[in-house]
Amino acid sequence: MPRFVIALVVCLFWAAYAHAQETVYKYDLDTIDSSIKCELSRVASRYGPARAGRPTMKVSLEVTGTETVTKKVSVDFFGNASYETSRKNIVGNSWTRNIHEKNRVNCGKSFVVDVGLYSCMQQERGRFFEGRTVTCGTSTSASTQAGAGVKFVWFIETKIEGNLVIKREWEIKLKAPPSAA
């Protein structure tokens, strides 16, 4: 009987882990990059085409992402015990992107999220065309949590639980126009 219970909890925890991975896996750098390109195409529509005497229709971007995975297992059997692990991965990239309507193709991708750059550039339009440097920053995140547990009474009460939390966060910094290299 105890082997069956342990096997059941392991299966439930594995299923919860697979579901959590599937939920957040799309929230990656490709998604953020496509979302940025989509918003820059909207900025291009609002600002109009590049012309002589106007600032360069480009932005420089810095993107930093963190993924935190926390796993916890606890057992109550004549007292309680728990084990928890946490891992944090950090990635960073920087690049220059064009403010151009042709980036609109990215808006039709299956997983595009609002990263807040369009609203910033919309608010700073006047400063941008005055030749001032515009800087914007935004942070966006997604998380999922899954758990499984079993409790049974057979002479004594026993409880086994597992929990998994996955969180991805992206910090985006924009500077327009980019500094001359």
How far do the termini sit from each other? 69 Å
Apparent shape = elongated
Which class best fits the helix and strand makeup?
Answer: alpha+beta
Number of strands: 4
Please summarize the sheet with the most strands. 4 strands, antiparallel
Number of domains: 1
Quote the average pLDDT: 84
Helix segment tally: 4
Could you list the spans in which at least 5 consecutive residues all have pLDDT below 50? Answer: none
Beta-strand residue fraction: 35-45%
Q: What can be said about this structure in brief?
A:
The protein has one domain. Helix content is 30%, strand content 44%. The protein has helices at residues 2-24, 29-47, 117-123, 125-129, and strands spanning 58-76, 80-98, 134-154, 156-176.
Structure description:
The protein has one domain. Strand 1 and strand 2 form a beta hairpin. The chain has a four-stranded antiparallel β-sheet. Helix content is 30%, strand content 44%. Helix 2 runs parallel beside helix 3. The model has no long low-confidence stretch (mean pLDDT 84). The chain has 181 residues and is α+β, with helices and mostly antiparallel strands.
Topology:
Elements (H helix, E strand, L loop, with lengths): L1 H23 L4 H19 L10 E19 L3 E19 L18 H7 L1 H5 L4 E21 L1 E21 L5
Antiparallel strand pairs: 1-2, 1-4, 3-4
Helix pairs in contact: 2-3
Main traits of this protein?
four-stranded antiparallel β-sheet; alpha+beta; 181 residues; 4 helices; single chain
